[in-house]
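ASSEMBLY PREDICTION REQUEST
Request ID: AP-0331
Submitted by: J.K., bench scientist
Number of chains: six
Total residues: 748
Priority: normal
Notes: Please return the full assembly, not individual chains.
Input sequences:
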Amino acid sequence: MRTAARLFQQRGYDATSMNDVAAALKLSKGGLYHHFQSKDEILFHIMSHAMEITEERVINVVRRIDISRPVGAEERLRMLIRLHIEVVLSPEDREITVMLHENHPLPPSLRRKINVRKKDYVHFVENLIAEVQKRRGAQSPVTPRAAAFALVGMINWIYQWYKPDGSLTGDALVKQYTDIFFHGAVG
Amino acid sequence: MRTAARLFQQRGYDATSMNDVAAALKLSKGGLYHHFQSKDEILFHIMSHAMEITEERVINVVRRIDISRPVGAEERLRMLIRLHIEVVLSPEDREITVMLHENHPLPPSLRRKINVRKKDYVHFVENLIAEVQKRRGAQSPVTPRAAAFALVGMINWIYQWYKPDGSLTGDALVKQYTDIFFHGAVG
Amino acid sequence: MRTAARLFQQRGYDATSMNDVAAALKLSKGGLYHHFQSKDEILFHIMSHAMEITEERVINVVRRIDISRPVGAEERLRMLIRLHIEVVLSPEDREITVMLHENHPLPPSLRRKINVRKKDYVHFVENLIAEVQKRRGAQSPVTPRAAAFALVGMINWIYQWYKPDGSLTGDALVKQYTDIFFHGAVG
Amino acid sequence: MRTAARLFQQRGYDATSMNDVAAALKLSKGGLYHHFQSKDEILFHIMSHAMEITEERVINVVRRIDISRPVGAEERLRMLIRLHIEVVLSPEDREITVMLHENHPLPPSLRRKINVRKKDYVHFVENLIAEVQKRRGAQSPVTPRAAAFALVGMINWIYQWYKPDGSLTGDALVKQYTDIFFHGAVG
DNA sequence: TATGAATGAGGGTTCATTCAT
DNA sequence: TATGAATGAACCCTCATTCAT
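STATUS: Completed
Returned structure:
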């Protein structure tokens, strides 16, 4: 299934045939259908798995850190930015999570399930941003909602241009994006 | 061709058949092939047209304004943000320009042509940001390159969530995103 | 389409592939789909055509004869028996009309359309029988409905056993069945 | 196996997969193949069983009654009609025996075996009819052979239209068909 | 006896493309 | 310029059957 995700991400979902997936798995087409009922189902599983990764590696970590040792909202937001970027850059998960960023042709009912979880994620970010703004006291002209979408957008866009072997390390990228999000890009 | 773009964007490129396109144009399939040599060509034309729109409506406007009446770099950057967002929101161009955001299955040679123009666009943004930072004098920890990608990412992401008939007007969105980009989201 | 009917009748609908049909027509599978949207549609066309044949060659003839020159009900019934048997035996239509006798896997909505026409046919026979009984005056213990089904059943069954090159000619068969239906088999 | 017959009769033989049969039996596909060597074999068993039912419930009963207590040929023929109709209407056997009426895709060798028994059945009917005609003395214009096929046809056709919960009871149907066969439908 | 993974052939269908008209 | 018939390859999927366990 990881294999399927890789193929889908490389060639595109539509351009990848079940034959391709089966061959990559050294399985016959029929054998593949023993494990998945349809191509859609594979895609849905990948999407679900991608959401799980994101939820576990980002949201759950941020939530847990706050329980074990109370931590300021701002620090939690910084952590979220770092974790989210790490998921996008992570060599083993990138291929899976990146599938979420494009609009793949899922049947409506399954698509909705995924969309709910996407929205939940943005909500979580939004709430965290709202909390940070409240702590800071100062009235911000920026609504948490727009800020959340901006943050998610700029992070999810990374895979479109980032080269892991380039001069910009992941850590540096995290720092840059955190600075941009907290203080703007030209400050 | 605008019609084709709409179909591609609604159903996906692969999921749209030449039959669909021809039918939407009230043309026979054979007739369609008198105007375009292949499906790839249609896609390429759309992508090229999308780049043209972006270049004309954003870059050229910003450049021209500077020629006709010298204008501060910061103001030009603000203008670029507004113009870019307007293109993304524009009812008549949205369907076309949005095609640029996903990785459609173009033959390599054509794909490269589009990518060059995409990069040029980011370069233009990057240079503008650099200029603004220089004018401000203060050393910024943010590289123009990362800033440019962040900006492009958050703007291009808008179509994923923005509802034209929602409570957030286009103007308000422009203001929010400008604020975020210049002063951060929690300032 | 006549070709398809022949194949369906010989090998069975399910056992006949679109490949078979296309090959028999010296057409590619794709070419076949230019004329029919689906295998179901072919089957439906065949069934509809079979109903048309039956209606034209039996019902309409009987109706018309009565108009042009008033004819006793009994004679009309005898004529119906002959015409129906002739359709079942007719070399050129047999393969098509026989398809009606088995329950082929049509989608429910199309199946219903055919069934309505089948019922109309039996109704016509039923009414004719009722008329004959009334003319005879004597109270018959046999309901026109059961009689109609018995008649249709025994005629439609013919194709299961009748050999055109056997000793029993079509005319003789008509006479036999007419006798059976009018006077019983052991009289 | 009764289960398989039900499925075959409801959905059609080709449209019923071994998976369907196995599932209905709460068995795995592999398990099913321990009881039957192939799908064809299941069908053949059903057909054979159907013939056995017919032979036992109709022919043997008629034969035995004649041995235990000599009975007139006409009464035996009336009995045969009743018994045959009862088999066709019997809730528990209908699904099985009905399979005989359509031409299912059996391998030629097995198909032949079934056909021989079908012919034997018709022969039995034919002989019985001949005997009745002889007893009656009067020369009948109807050959026993055609009469037998007519009788078998009209009875086997019953399942195409008969509704068990309709106004026509099985007994009434037996009476109607017996009348038709002995005295014609309009007498 | 029974399972479930696996196969290979084939099914119906779609589709970009060609070409005679 | 436009049509529509035709193609051939590919696609997703199904299925009877096998076999190690």
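REVIEWER COMMENTS: Chains D and A do not touch (no CB pair under 8 Å).
SIGN-OFF: pending second reviewer
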